[in-house]
Every structure is written in C-alpha cells, then in structure tokens.
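User: Reviewer 2 asked us to show a designed sequence for the structure in our supplementary figure. I'm pasting the structure tokens here. Could you produce the per-position amino acids so we can include them in the response letter?
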C-alpha cells in the first residue's frame, strides 16, 4: 500500500551507512495510520506551555487517502503533542508505529516510545471534569465523590509507577498531571452536582485546592495542559480563595499575563490593540512565549478590515468540492459552526431568518460546518431541514489563517473578497449585523 512520505528534515539521517548521532538525537520517526480525521492534512498540535498563546509549533501531517503516513520530525527535548483527542509524548530517538482515531482509547502504539504513549491514551479530559468523567463518577455528596476521586487518582498513580521503560522526567510530569486532575475534579464538582450555594462550596474546597496549586508552582509543569488549567485559577477572581499566599514564579506569571493579551486578539483585532500587544511583547522575558506573541501578531494583523480574505476548501452535502472564493461577487456572511456546539445551533435559526430578509439582494449566506466527523454532520442535516445550501470544511486555513479558536464565529467579506469583519456580529445581534450588511449594499 502506498504511503505518503513527509520529511520535515533537510538532509539525510545517515551518511556512508552510519547514523549521525547529533541528528538522530533530535528527531522522532512517526509512521502509521490516522483514520476518521476528515482530511489528509492532519494537524499535530504542540501541547506544551506556549500552546496557550499560539500554534506556531504545530506540525501538519500529510497522509494518503487511507490515512497512512511516514514522517520524521525534529524534537530536541521530550515534548507533548496532540492529534484530535490523543495526547502524545515524544522523546528524541523515538521510533513509533501508531494507529489513531478520534477516540483516544482506540489508539495503538508499537516501537520505541510505545509504553509512555499507551499510558497516555487513557489520560483524562479537563473539560470533562477530569476524574468526574463528565459527571459519571458523581457519588451523591462531595465527600463521597472526593473519596471516589482520590481512589481513582491512586489507581492512576499505581499505573504510572508500574511503567518500566519511561524516563524519570515523564513520571514526574505525569504525577503532576494526576494531582492537577484531582484539583480540577474537586473544582468541577460544583458544576456537575449543581451546587446551589457556590460561594460556600468554594470556601469548603479551598483548603483542598490551595496546597495542590502550591505544589504545581513549578515552571516545568506548565507543559501539562490540566496544570495550566488549574493554575489559571491563581490569576482569576478566585485567586484569594484558592491561591492565597502562593508566590508564583515569574515565568508562570508571564504566561497568564500574556494569555490575557492573546485572549483579546482572539476576540477582536484592531490597529490599536495590535499596537498595544506589540509594546507589551517588547517587555517579555521568556523567548518561547515571545515567539508565539510575535507570530500571533503577524497573523492577526492580516485579519484587519481591508485585507484579502483567506480562501478555504469546502464540500457540500453531496460531496462536491467548492472554495469560498467561488462565491466572490456578492457580500459573504459566513457562519462557522459544528453539530456538537450548542451556542452554534442556537444561532442557526437567526442566520436562516436573516437570509430570508436579504433574499434577492447581493448577500450570500454561507453556513460552514467545521465537523471533522462527516457522518455526524450529514446525520444532523437529515434531521434538521435547512433552507440554505450547507457546506463542511476542515481546511487548516480556518485555524492557521482565520484564527478560528472558538465557534460560533462569523465572517463578513465584501464583494471583492476582502475582509470587512473577521469577528462579525452574530445574526442574533440583528441591529448590528443588518447595519453592516446594509452599508455594504449601499457601497
């Protein structure tokens, strides 16, 4: 079976039949199959500390039509990456054969580095309440649930301790992940159990959460996603309850201060904001964080009004291919959504109603699903009849060029295919969006 070869290194790994030690020690060989990805260009996202700020260290894996690939990547130090819901731990010198789907539990690994990654495929998800597993491990009261959480954490720690072919560094980092998952579980209990007196609940768990946060106050732990999640509470309105007395390191403080600026750029881009972020970046100390901000500024500036719109490849429900630029000539109002996104589906009726208002006018309403699971999208369309022509896109330009980090997101593009507003008002904000659309029609 033919496999696509994607070499990310220049030069050869071998010279005159002998391995070059300096090169081999900074590379990882990955090969195998990625299935149900919805695309032959699959992002492998860097999941270390600076991923909170940007995606410049992401890697695009090119597969053939059946998902097979074979690639060598540069990895100078042990690093976390993610493919869909799968978190990988890659160490220089690893030689992994893998099979990955969108379900992390189905992942298969063989070769050097397999033991660490087989352990990682059972990692928990912060947005699912970690050990609460989306509420499945609630036990009636907080005390009973806490006992369950602590028992599961001990079991996970035993699994980690039993690994024999992993580094001490890996065990240290993953032990920190377990502690962070415990803290996240305690915190999320209030939401999953629908605690009515949330203020009292916060006070109740503060003595449990605070020492965990204090123990996670280590720069190297920032490479763990759930650690970044729970440490963020030390920079939130809850910091007095949960992080009282913790003197966070300067690198940790810089990460969360920078994240506030990045969040502003993710919400709206203006010339004034770009200038402010540029001035802030000049004061930054951590080179990796500064590099992400610089890359972010460069890309975000391309989303300012008047810049050329980025094209994306789309498919309709029948599987026919289109490009967004094919619709050039009319004003384009684009709805980026997904079947799993509740707020997206709430906006959909407003989008279709607004389209009816502009029937016969030079405005094209373009609903674009970002679902990677095409079957889920088509099944949804079969249940929910839509009046507008529907599209699906998993084009990497959505993330890397349009900076789509959340949905629903709406784009407004003029008839010449230039950006009017890369963060356009929602259709439910009827007065705002109709004023914009009407002004473009007058022009």
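Assistant: Here is a per-position design you can include in the supplement:
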């Amino acid at each position: 079976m033919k496999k696509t070869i994607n070499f990310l290194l220049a030069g050869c790994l071998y010279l005159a039949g002998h391995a070059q030690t300096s090169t081999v020690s900074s590379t990882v060989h990955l090969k195998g199959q990625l299935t149900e990805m919805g695309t032959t260009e699959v992002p492998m996202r860097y999941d270390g500390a600076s991923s909170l700020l940007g995606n410049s260290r992401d890697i695009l894996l090119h597969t053939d039509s059946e998902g097979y690939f074979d690639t060598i990547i540069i990895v100078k130090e042990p690093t976390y990456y993610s493919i869909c819901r799968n978190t990988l731990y890659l160490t220089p010198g690893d030689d992994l054969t893998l099979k990955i789907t969108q379900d992390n539990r189905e992942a298969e690994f063989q070769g050097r580095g397999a033991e660490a990654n087989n352990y990682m495929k059972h990692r928990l998800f912060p947005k699912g309440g970690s050990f609460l597993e989306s509420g499945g491990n609630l036990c009636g009261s907080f005390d009973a649930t806490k006992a369950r959480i602590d028992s599961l954490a001990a079991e996970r720690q035993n699994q980690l301790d039993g690994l024999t072919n992993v580094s001490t560094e890996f065990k240290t980092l993953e032990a920190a992940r377990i502690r962070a998952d415990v803290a996240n579980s305690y915190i999320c209990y209030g939401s999953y159990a629908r605690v009515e007196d949330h203020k009292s609940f916060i006070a109740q768990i503060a003595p449990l959460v605070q020492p965990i946060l204090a123990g996670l106050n280590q720069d190297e732990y920032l490479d763990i996603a759930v650690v970044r999640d729970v440490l963020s509470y030390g920079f939130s309105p809850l910091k007095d309850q949960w992080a009282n007395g913790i003197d966070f390191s300067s690198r940790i403080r810089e990460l969360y201060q920078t994240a506030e600026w990045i969040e502003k750029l993710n919400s709206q881009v203006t010339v004034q904001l770009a200038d402010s972020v540029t001035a802030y970046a000049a004061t930054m100390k951590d080179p990796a964080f500064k590099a992400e901000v610089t890359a972010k500024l460069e890309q975000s500036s391309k989303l300012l009004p008047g810049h050329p719109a980025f094209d994306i490849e789309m498919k309709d429900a029948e599987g026919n291919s289109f490009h967004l630029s094919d619709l050039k000539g009319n004003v384009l109002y684009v709805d980026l959504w997904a079947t799993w996104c509740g707020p997206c589906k709430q906006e959909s009726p407003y989008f279709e109603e607004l389209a009816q208002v502009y029937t016969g006018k030079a405005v094209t309403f373009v609903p674009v699903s970002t679902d990677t699971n095409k079957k889920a999208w088509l099944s949804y369309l079969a249940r929910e009849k839509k009046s507008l022509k529907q599209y699906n896109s998993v084009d990497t330009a959505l993330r890397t060029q349009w900076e789509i980090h959340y949905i629903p997101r709406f784009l407004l593009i003029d008839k010449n295919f230039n950006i009017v507003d890369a963060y356009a008002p929602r259709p439910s904000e009827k007065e705002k969006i109709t004023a914009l659309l009407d002004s473009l029609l007058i022009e």
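For the response letter, you might also mention the following. The longest helix spans residues 168-192. The chain is about 40% helix and 20% strand.
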